[in-house]
Amino acid sequence: MNIILFGPPGAGKGTQAAKLVDEYNLPHLSTGNIFRAAIKNETPVGLKAKSFIDAGELVPDQVVVEIVAEALEEDTYSNGCIFDGFPRTVFQAESLDKILNEKGTGKAQVIALTVPEEELVRRVLSRGEGRSDDTEESLKNRLKVYQKETAPVLAYYADRGQAKIIEGTGDVNDIFARIKSALS
Ligand code: ADP
To answer: Which domains does the chain have, with CATH numbers?
Structure first.
């Protein structure tokens, strides 16, 4: 089973991903976490990604798809995965579909979390994780980039009957219950 947690910054993808990992015994693949680890370890990918991330821009598709394709080769992912923060462009979605098709682990089910913009801003600016991109300026750009580059990914999966829209406000456990009942 493959699940894509989809939504703007601050929608709660990471929080719900952790709960899905426990519930379905699937590994978590967060491209944001991969990049943050790469930056911390000063790897070539990290050095490439840092300026994009700090500015709230997307890391180029080629870099992202390569690290995801490489990760998915690992045995850990042989039964599927919970994707968080990926795919973020239609190109990434098409690339992922090709990979999943070849792996035969099933089509991805997309769970799209919706949260009003003022709530997203409040959550991100108060989460206090010390992320260098959780600044007002970077967040403003991330939200803009989300609308322009990432929102079309939802339309892409909705057209294919693979997307469910879930209200991402309220109690964390209630949101999780909604997600579970949307998954088949
Ligand atoms: P958030 O959802 O709060 O923006 P993420 O951890 O998912 O947090 O992403 C942080 C940053 O990492 C993004 O703003 C972007 O620069 C980069 N990034 C993560 N995933 C991708 C991706 N799939 N494609 C391009 N850039 C990405």
So the answer is: 2-29+80-183 (3.40.50.300)
